[in-house]
Request: fold
Amino acid sequence: MTESVDTPLASSKLREKSDLTRYLPEIYMRNISWTPFILAALFASIIGGVGISYGSTDIKVLSFAAIAGIIVALTIYQKPELGAYLLTIMVFTNASDLLTDEGFPGVNKPLVAVIFVSILANYFLRTGKFSKLPELTRVEWALLGFYLAIVISTFAAPDKGEAFDVIVNVTKDILIGIILFITLNTREKWETCLRLFLIVMTGVAGLGVIKMGLGLDQTFLGLAQLSIFGQLDDSGMLRYGGPIGESNMWGQVLAATLPIAIYRVKHGKKNSEKFWMSVASLILLLAVIYTNSRGAFVAIGLILPLIFLEMRIKPLYLMVAGVIIIALFAALPQNYTQRLMSLNVFFTSQNEFAIQQDDSFVGRSNQARAGLAMFQENPLLGVGFGNFSANYWDYANKLGLVNAGMRASNQISRHPHSLYIEILSEMGLVGFITFSIFFYNLFSSLIRARKKYDRHVLGSDWVSWLKALVFSLLTFLVSGLFLHGLLFRYIWMLIGFALAALAINRDLLRAVQTQPRNNK
Reply:
């Protein structure tokens, strides 16, 4: 097996390097005109000079942002995968929203636009970075079907203007996944981006663990916030919400990251990688516990045994892992473990009164009943994508879950707290069926890809990445039983990784199959 299998498909004939490549390796390409770069440099100089010399403070900041934007755009044009790396950082640190909260312009939408323009420019200018359009398999067609179901469901929404905003946002989130699919077109780029994802998530989770463990007020520039939605633990304290300030959703993202870190513990190429991934796994697990998200914790509890079974972990190692987890719980304050232990009441208690005393369970039960009522009245298209909250109070009132006084005094948005009830209520059978078809095709394709790769004996490292991704997506979907998909961008990032992995796997297998056989 040679290294050529993992090289980009772009033809090396397009690269005629001059002496300048000694100073700009892998940047300069003869077939790319330097005229845009010269004009961009002049434009940036004019903006910077005028802004710094004559502008107010705001204009100076905007001038600096414009210059930085030009530099980023040109860099991404030359290396589109850098856009994928930057998006990974921005999404999983929630940096764009944090900047917006401070009064700065959002970053994600312009960045997505810049990367897509870069992709199109490289393709039509035939720079060699993208020699062909992405291949559309049944997975991509199923994704398109689900997206069309989202769009169609908005026709059921009474407020078409708000529905349009929702479509714009979900389209942006899906495009983020598509960007990963297109730009991470080699195994090296894909693994680099996924490693970056692990580093970002571990770093952000580590800040949260430090904050909660030491009882600090510091939010580390917003990366370790408490819940901004008033989510409380059993002692009445605000729960840890990470950079998004939403405890349940952040717990879901952390839980979905954990399988990838665990697989690197076993399949890391070096002992140092295995050690740091062990540390990362503990940090991620502890951060999930600090979110007090019972849904995320249940998902981990269901998925971890499957991971250990697939890995064929030795009983001794399982015992060590169990001791570490027990020690973590013992070291936590009582208010962190009390909420998790309340799951026992829900699953084992025969006392309906005991369950009714848990406001969270009661609230989720009411929201689930309202969501199912929306589906029953609108079985085909639902009430419109993103419209559960707008319809909740009407349906809750019809079901007798609230009275008119409660509705008038309580204007808090309500959400279904279940991804599947959310899809049924907002998109009906059309949405639920297309969603199921897409994920069935995605999982079956990933599993088949792993088996085909194993058949060619190309090594276990790539297979371990595929297995980790399957369990990561599965963790997200299992936690979706208890948590809704309010922040879809995170699952779309994971889907983007999966689509890219499938495309890379097809290219790798084709390269192996077309290589001349060694008849020695």
In short: The radius of gyration is 25 Å. Residues 397 and 406 are 9 Å apart (CA to CA). The chain is about 70% helix and 0% strand.
